[in-house]
């Protein structure tokens, strides 16, 4: 009788484990890989479409579609651009007409993915002026910080705004102290490399949690994430002038001041020998955010 009770107990336990695993399997759902990836290429010059390989701005918009895809990312010049919409812009800066490989990765359910690569020919003719390069790198390397002592050092306005802080002007006091913004340093080197010294934490829009990785910590204040743990990182910087507007672009997920996603390109609004102000459109296409930097 004791043996019978023992075997009944083991059978019951195995049955519970079996049905529990079955329920887990049902919760996972089907794994479906995307297929039929298509990539379209649009060349842009001064805000309008231009014929291939462009008229010299180096700006290209890529759009990807695929069956059974729920998100995408692009790999362009060793930069990964996360774009759930399947659309990404990139500015190529190597002078002349050059050919580049662009890869679109489509993700389906259960993490399944598929990719497709194409080659694009792009023309870039912009050469940055010497005084801009001198301001940014001082001929070798230069460090900048958010100029927290001046008005409008951080603000926002409508997309395409023509002034700093049109909708929300920041005062002339460091009122974002304690967020992880003011202790950051942005180092630009003459060889085209860039280092963001974070002092351990950064400040940004809530989408940074899903986009830049990390532990998912920090303090949420409305749509802001304060003191998000993030280590120092390095990348590259480039200068272009689409539509005649001097523009600073950081590789990968590089950012300045406050993470907003988007294309990681910053239009230079004003500049002097020791600093500059920037405008950038966020990843949701809702606002233009501005930052003022001063040489450290």
Automatic annotation (TrEMBL):
Q: Where does the UniProt annotation place the signal sequence? A: 1-23
Query: Does Signal count among this protein's keywords?
Result: yes
Query: Which SUPFAM superfamilies does its entry note?
Result: PKD domain (SSF49299)
Which keywords accompany this UniProt record? Signal
- Protein name (database record): Glucan endo-1,3-beta-D-glucosidase
């Amino acid at each position: 009788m004791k043996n019978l009770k023992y075997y009944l107990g083991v059978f019951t336990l195995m049955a519970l484990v079996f049905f529990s695993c079955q329920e887990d399997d049902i919760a996972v759902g089907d794994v479906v890989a995307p297929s039929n990836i298509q990539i379209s290429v649009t060349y842009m010059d001064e805000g309008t479409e231009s014929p291939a390989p462009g008229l010299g701005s180096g700006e290209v918009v890529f759009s990807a579609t695929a069956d059974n895809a729920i998100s995408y990312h692009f790999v362009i010049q060793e930069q990964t651009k996360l774009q759930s919409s399947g659309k990404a812009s990139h500015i190529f800066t190597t002078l002349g007409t050059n050919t580049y490989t662009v890869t679109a990765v489509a993700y389906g359910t259960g993490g399944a993915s598929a990719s497709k690569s194409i080659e694009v020919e792009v023309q870039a003719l912009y050469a940055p002026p010497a005084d801009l390069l001198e301001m940014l790198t001082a001929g070798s390397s230069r460090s900048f910080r958010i100029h927290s002592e001046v008005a409008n050092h951080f603000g926002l306005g409508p997309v395409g705004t023509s002034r700093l802080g049109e909708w929300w002007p920041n005062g002339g006091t460091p009122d974002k102290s304690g967020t992880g913004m003011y202790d950051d340093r942005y180092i630009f080197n003459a060889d085209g490399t860039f280092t963001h010294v974070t002092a351990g934490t950064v400040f940004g829009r809530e989408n940074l949690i899903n986009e830049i990785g990390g532990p998912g910590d920090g303090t949420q204040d409305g749509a802001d994430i304060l003191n998000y743990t993030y280590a120092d990182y390095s990348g590259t910087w480039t200068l272009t002038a689409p539509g005649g507007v001097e523009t600073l672009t950081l590789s990968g997920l590089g950012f300045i001041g406050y993470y907003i996603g988007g294309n990681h390109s910053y239009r230079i609004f004003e500049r002097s020998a020791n600093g500059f102000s920037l405008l950038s459109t966020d990843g949701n296409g809702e606002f233009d955010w501005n930052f003022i930097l001063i040489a450290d």
